Protein backbone atom coordinates (compact mmCIF):
# COMPACT_ATOMS: atom_id res chain seq x y z
CA UNK A 1 0.00 0.00 0.00
CA UNK A 2 2.85 2.39 0.81
CA UNK A 3 4.21 2.06 -2.75
CA UNK A 4 0.90 3.41 -4.13
CA UNK A 5 0.76 6.48 -1.86
CA UNK A 6 3.24 8.61 -3.84
CA UNK A 7 1.48 7.74 -7.11
CA UNK A 8 -1.93 8.47 -5.61
CA UNK A 9 -0.65 11.78 -4.22
CA UNK A 10 0.73 12.78 -7.63
CA UNK A 11 -2.47 11.83 -9.45
CA UNK A 12 -4.70 13.68 -6.99
CA UNK A 13 -2.42 16.73 -7.09
CA UNK A 14 -2.51 16.67 -10.89
CA UNK A 15 -6.29 16.50 -10.83
CA UNK A 16 -6.49 19.46 -8.47
CA UNK A 17 -3.94 21.47 -10.45
CA UNK A 18 -5.77 20.93 -13.71
CA UNK A 19 -8.71 22.80 -12.19
CA UNK A 20 -6.44 25.83 -11.90
CA UNK A 21 -6.18 26.12 -15.68
CA UNK A 22 -9.75 25.88 -16.84
CA UNK A 23 -13.31 26.07 -15.76
CA UNK A 24 -15.02 22.81 -14.96
CA UNK A 25 -18.70 22.05 -14.84
CA UNK A 26 -19.73 18.65 -13.52
CA UNK A 27 -22.99 16.88 -12.88
CA UNK A 28 -23.34 18.32 -9.39
CA UNK A 29 -23.60 21.77 -10.98
CA UNK A 30 -20.51 22.90 -9.09
CA UNK A 31 -18.24 25.36 -10.85
CA UNK A 32 -14.52 25.25 -10.13
CA UNK A 33 -12.53 28.03 -11.73
CA UNK A 34 -9.29 29.93 -11.53
CA UNK A 35 -10.76 33.04 -13.09
CA UNK A 36 -11.48 36.23 -11.20
CA UNK A 37 -15.18 36.55 -10.35
CA UNK A 38 -17.15 39.12 -12.30
CA UNK A 39 -17.57 42.28 -10.23
CA UNK A 40 -20.80 43.96 -11.29
CA UNK A 41 -19.39 47.37 -10.39
CA UNK A 42 -16.44 46.98 -12.77
CA UNK A 43 -18.08 44.81 -15.43
CA UNK A 44 -17.07 45.82 -18.97
CA UNK A 45 -19.48 45.68 -21.94
CA UNK A 46 -17.05 43.42 -23.81
CA UNK A 47 -16.03 40.69 -21.36
CA UNK A 48 -12.50 39.31 -21.21
CA UNK A 49 -11.84 35.57 -21.50
CA UNK A 50 -12.24 34.92 -17.77
CA UNK A 51 -15.56 36.75 -17.72
CA UNK A 52 -16.72 34.93 -20.86
CA UNK A 53 -15.94 31.58 -19.24
CA UNK A 54 -18.01 32.45 -16.18
CA UNK A 55 -20.89 33.80 -18.25
CA UNK A 56 -20.83 30.73 -20.51
CA UNK A 57 -20.88 28.32 -17.57
CA UNK A 58 -23.77 30.17 -15.95
CA UNK A 59 -25.69 30.16 -19.22
CA UNK A 60 -25.08 26.42 -19.74
CA UNK A 61 -26.25 25.61 -16.20
CA UNK A 62 -29.40 27.70 -16.65
CA UNK A 63 -30.27 26.16 -20.03
CA UNK A 64 -32.72 23.31 -20.47
CA UNK A 65 -30.00 21.45 -22.41
CA UNK A 66 -27.94 20.88 -19.27
CA UNK A 67 -28.81 17.52 -17.73
CA UNK A 68 -27.59 15.40 -14.86
CA UNK A 69 -24.99 12.99 -16.18
CA UNK A 70 -23.16 15.56 -18.30
CA UNK A 71 -19.61 16.78 -17.81
CA UNK A 72 -18.78 20.00 -19.61
CA UNK A 73 -15.47 21.87 -19.60
CA UNK A 74 -14.61 25.02 -21.47
CA UNK A 75 -11.56 27.06 -22.30
CA UNK A 76 -11.72 30.59 -23.69
CA UNK A 77 -9.00 32.25 -25.75
CA UNK A 78 -9.47 35.68 -27.34
CA UNK A 79 -13.26 35.33 -27.34
CA UNK A 80 -13.15 31.85 -28.85
CA UNK A 81 -14.67 29.14 -26.66
CA UNK A 82 -13.64 25.49 -26.76
CA UNK A 83 -16.31 23.14 -25.37
CA UNK A 84 -15.16 19.69 -24.27
CA UNK A 85 -16.66 16.91 -22.19
CA UNK A 86 -19.52 14.47 -22.44
CA UNK A 87 -23.22 15.10 -23.06
CA UNK A 88 -26.19 12.77 -23.44
CA UNK A 89 -27.54 13.61 -26.91
CA UNK A 90 -26.60 15.34 -30.15
CA UNK A 91 -29.58 17.65 -29.62
CA UNK A 92 -28.26 18.88 -26.25
CA UNK A 93 -24.75 19.18 -27.72
CA UNK A 94 -26.12 21.56 -30.37
CA UNK A 95 -28.26 23.49 -27.85
CA UNK A 96 -25.26 24.09 -25.58
CA UNK A 97 -23.23 25.40 -28.52
CA UNK A 98 -26.10 27.72 -29.48
CA UNK A 99 -26.31 29.05 -25.89
CA UNK A 100 -22.60 29.86 -25.83
CA UNK A 101 -22.39 31.45 -29.29
CA UNK A 102 -25.23 33.83 -28.32
CA UNK A 103 -23.09 35.45 -25.59
CA UNK A 104 -21.86 38.96 -26.37
CA UNK A 105 -18.10 38.84 -26.88
CA UNK A 106 -17.96 35.21 -28.05
CA UNK A 107 -16.44 35.22 -31.52
CA UNK A 108 -16.53 31.51 -32.22
CA UNK A 109 -17.34 28.17 -30.54
CA UNK A 110 -15.33 25.00 -31.11
CA UNK A 111 -17.74 22.28 -30.06
CA UNK A 112 -15.76 19.19 -29.13
CA UNK A 113 -18.40 17.77 -26.79
CA UNK A 114 -18.67 13.99 -27.13
CA UNK A 115 -21.85 11.94 -26.81
CA UNK A 116 -21.45 9.50 -23.93
CA UNK A 117 -21.14 9.02 -20.20
CA UNK A 118 -18.84 11.29 -18.18
CA UNK A 119 -15.27 10.07 -17.90
CA UNK A 120 -14.19 8.48 -14.62
CA UNK A 121 -12.11 10.14 -11.90
CA UNK A 122 -9.26 7.80 -12.81
CA UNK A 123 -9.39 9.04 -16.42
CA UNK A 124 -9.58 12.65 -15.19
CA UNK A 125 -6.45 12.07 -13.09
CA UNK A 126 -4.70 10.47 -16.07
CA UNK A 127 -5.70 13.43 -18.24
CA UNK A 128 -4.35 15.86 -15.64
CA UNK A 129 -1.03 14.06 -15.61
CA UNK A 130 -0.91 14.14 -19.42
CA UNK A 131 -1.61 17.89 -19.36
CA UNK A 132 1.24 18.45 -16.90
CA UNK A 133 3.62 16.40 -19.06
CA UNK A 134 2.64 18.30 -22.22
CA UNK A 135 3.04 21.69 -20.50
CA UNK A 136 6.47 20.66 -19.22
CA UNK A 137 7.59 19.56 -22.70
CA UNK A 138 6.31 22.76 -24.28
CA UNK A 139 8.04 24.87 -21.62
CA UNK A 140 11.31 23.05 -22.28
CA UNK A 141 11.32 23.69 -26.04
CA UNK A 142 13.37 26.67 -27.25
CA UNK A 143 11.02 27.51 -30.17
CA UNK A 144 7.88 27.69 -28.03
CA UNK A 145 6.64 30.32 -25.60
CA UNK A 146 4.60 27.99 -23.40
CA UNK A 147 2.88 30.96 -21.74
CA UNK A 148 1.06 31.62 -25.04
CA UNK A 149 -0.43 28.11 -25.21
CA UNK A 150 -3.21 26.62 -23.08
CA UNK A 151 -3.31 22.84 -22.77
CA UNK A 152 -6.32 20.75 -21.79
CA UNK A 153 -6.65 16.97 -21.91
CA UNK A 154 -10.00 15.20 -22.04
CA UNK A 155 -10.17 11.41 -22.37
CA UNK A 156 -6.64 11.21 -23.86
CA UNK A 157 -7.40 13.94 -26.42
CA UNK A 158 -5.05 16.89 -25.94
CA UNK A 159 -6.30 20.31 -26.99
CA UNK A 160 -3.65 22.98 -27.56
CA UNK A 161 -5.08 26.48 -27.67
CA UNK A 162 -3.61 29.92 -28.31
CA UNK A 163 -2.80 32.78 -30.64
CA UNK A 164 0.59 31.87 -32.08
CA UNK A 165 2.78 31.99 -35.19
CA UNK A 166 2.71 29.15 -37.74
CA UNK A 167 6.15 28.08 -36.53
CA UNK A 168 5.03 27.90 -32.90
CA UNK A 169 1.89 25.98 -33.91
CA UNK A 170 4.02 23.47 -35.81
CA UNK A 171 6.49 22.90 -32.97
CA UNK A 172 3.78 22.79 -30.30
CA UNK A 173 1.88 20.15 -32.27
CA UNK A 174 5.03 18.12 -32.91
CA UNK A 175 6.15 18.23 -29.28
CA UNK A 176 2.67 17.38 -27.96
CA UNK A 177 2.41 14.31 -30.21
CA UNK A 178 5.62 12.92 -28.67
CA UNK A 179 4.28 12.88 -25.10
CA UNK A 180 3.29 9.53 -23.61
CA UNK A 181 -0.44 9.33 -22.89
CA UNK A 182 -1.48 11.57 -25.77
CA UNK A 183 -4.07 9.77 -27.88
CA UNK A 184 -4.93 12.59 -30.25
CA UNK A 185 -3.85 16.23 -30.64
CA UNK A 186 -6.49 18.80 -31.53
CA UNK A 187 -5.18 22.25 -32.46
CA UNK A 188 -7.32 25.27 -31.64
CA UNK A 189 -4.87 27.94 -32.76
CA UNK A 190 -5.44 31.42 -34.09
CA UNK A 191 -2.46 32.01 -36.35
CA UNK A 192 -0.67 35.33 -36.27
CA UNK A 193 0.07 36.92 -39.66
CA UNK A 194 3.48 36.10 -41.12
CA UNK A 195 6.16 38.69 -40.49
CA UNK A 196 7.61 40.21 -43.64
What descriptors fit this protein?
single chain; 196 residues; alpha/beta; Histidine-containing Protein, Chain: A; 2 domains; three-stranded mixed β-sheet; 8 strands; 36% helix; 26% strand; globular
Give a verbal description of the structure.
- The protein is built from five helices and eight strands.
- By secondary structure, it is an alpha/beta fold.
- The protein has two domains: 20-115, no CATH class; 121-191, Histidine-containing Protein, Chain: A (2-Layer Sandwich), CATH 3.30.1340.30.
- The strands form two sheets. The chain has a five-stranded mixed β-sheet with strand order 2-1-3-4-5, with helices on one face. The protein has a three-stranded mixed β-sheet with strand order 6-7-8.
- Helix 1 packs across helix 4 (121-139).
- It is globular and about 45 Å long.
Share of helix among residues? 25-40%
Major β-sheet profile: 5 strands, mixed
Give the overall average pLDDT: 85
Which H/E pattern describes the elements?
HEEHEEHEHEEHE
Number of domains: 2
Shape: globular
Strand residue content: 25-35%
Per DSSP E runs of 2 or more residues, the count of β-strands stands at: 8
